Amino acid sequence: MPAIDSYFITTPIYYVNDVPHLGHAYTTIACDALARFMRLDGKKVLFLTGTDEHGQKVEKSAQAAGQSPADFTNQVSQRFRDLTAKFEISNDDFIRTTEQRHIEAAQAIWTALVKSGDIYLGSYSGWYSVRDEAFFSEVELTDGGVGERLAPSGAPVEWVEEPSYFFRLSRWQKPLIKFYEENANFILPQSRRNEVVSFVSGGLQDLSVSRTSFKWGVPVPENEDHIMYVWLDALTNYLTATGYPDLKSNVFKTFWPTALHVVGKDILRFHAVYWPAFLMSAGIVPPSRVFAHGWWTVEGEKMSKSIQNVVEPFNLVDVFGLDQVRYFLLREVPFGNDGDFSKTALIHRINSDLSNDLGNLVQRVLSMIHRNCDAEIPVPASFSDDDQILLSQVDDLLQQVRDSMKQQACHDALEKIWAVIRTSNIYVDHEAPWALKKTDPIRMNTVLYTLAESLRNIAILIQPFMPNAGGKMLNQLGVPAGFRTFSSLGANKRILAGQAIPKPVGVFPRFVADEFSDG
Ligand code: ME8
């Protein structure tokens, strides 16, 4: 049994047919915030991301680039690794499906499915979309004109006829429904769960799980003319990283089945239907949760190479700053909903939430302490009712944010932190510590101490979302490195009076919208 304090979180492994864009950065940032939060909360975390390198789509992209699939995948996979570095992602492992450890795991799960009697040889004839790497039935298709048939994603389909192994998915319909019933939060958000349950209730057809018409994949163990269907190969990555097929490995015992798979809504069916069916068939307990987030459009349009509106994440960080981009993506849209990206909205968030609400508060409080309290956190006298109201809101914050993060509600967690920031701003205006300097310096000390304590809590709690800003604020408050986790929060662990603080510097610069209005 995994320890209750272990937390395994995964991003999808991204196809290396193309370089990373904002959508990939989004999922990875959200997982990073969740992973960092859980680590600061004392959990043992395994955070996994990586690249999905096999299949027809990648093979075709390599051909188009005039490279061997191996050279091509090395190159593009590196771009995804670079993305994790650029966004300061704290992943513990980066998996590539072309690695030997993964090929062994994928073949082992195949063998387990064979043993359970769920694999049989037949022949597939039907529609296949290379872009989705998925099979479709006639009723799911629409007419794209000039004889072209389109999958629901808008991708063209081609007719495929070849020998194929099948997985008896039909046999798992009832066990899946039972599993969803017994695990009400296996699929979140709830609306997505309902979609999946109704899809499975409608009946499941056996799934073609091998291909013979190309070679770029994991060979089927007993018949090397076939390669494994790229989704069966890819989904297994989550097990590979735990040491599978070694069920006695420490990582497997610690982290399986605690896995939380965070995915975009486009690939929910693979994760919430096929994956638990494969696992149940292989005698492995399914993961604890699949969370499907929404889709980003850009200025109201689908992100697409053909209309050249793809948002390039590296450049975005160079122009606006890492913490700013991370904050915007996690705060702008409730996690699970669709969102629209625009530079105007990004600049608005930076200026209003970061520069005005938080940045000004930090700057005002720290400058007053630096100037009026000999650059030391002042010693408080007795706390007034107003002080205690703010402090009790501050003390409740960790539990509130924790409740949100348990539901993957990053936007909600940030909203709760910002409620304390807003209360602190109202408090500082109301108490006017600048005016107390002459009239009542003892009271001024208590007010500034109360504000410093509020800032300490805010800084510790924003670290998962904005690691740099959180760290900078804590440096400026003089909080030592060993006192920055959630175990340092609580009414009986206040900020240390007498602690020296450096000369404050601004944390969040403002942006002038006009300079960035060219899209
Ligand atoms: O599907 N908005 O890889 P992929 C939000 N290899 N998220 C987006 C997005 C957008 N516009 N565009 C992409 C695959 N994403 C498979 C996964 S897992 C075993 C195999 C994100 O490169 C979102 O997380 O097509 C989506 O699910 C994922 O990128 C798709 O990445």
Topology (SSEs and partners):
Elements: E1 6-15, H1 22-40, E2 44-52, H2 56-64, H3 69-86, E3 93-96, H4 100-115, E4 119-129, E5 134-136, E6 142-145, E7 148-150, E8 158-167, H5 173-182, E9 187-188, H6 190-201, E10 207-208, E11 210-211, E12 219-220, E13 223-228, H7 230-235, H8 237-240, H9 250-255, E14 260-264, H10 268-281, E15 289-293, E16 296-298, E17 301-302, H11 313-320, H12 322-332, E18 339-341, H13 343-372, H14 385-406, H15 410-431, H16 433-439, H17 441-462, H18 467-476
Parallel strand pairs: 1-2, 1-14, 2-3, 9-15, 14-15, 16-18
Antiparallel strand pairs: 4-5, 4-8, 6-7, 8-10, 11-13, 12-13, 16-17
Ligand ME8 binds at residues 12-15, 23-24, 26-27, 52, 234-235, 237, 263-264, 266-267, 295-296, 303.
Bound molecules: ligand ME8
Helical/strand content category: alpha/beta
Task: Please count the helical segments.
Answer: 18
Roughly how much helix do the residues carry, as a percent range? 40-55%
Radius of gyration: 26 Å
Poorly predicted regions are: none
Shape: elongated
Tell me how many strands there are.
18
How is the main sheet built?
A: 6 strands, parallel
Report how far the terminal alpha carbons are from each other: 51 Å
Mean pLDDT: 95
- Spatial order of the strands in the main sheet? 3-2-1-14-15-9
Strand residue percentage = 15-25%
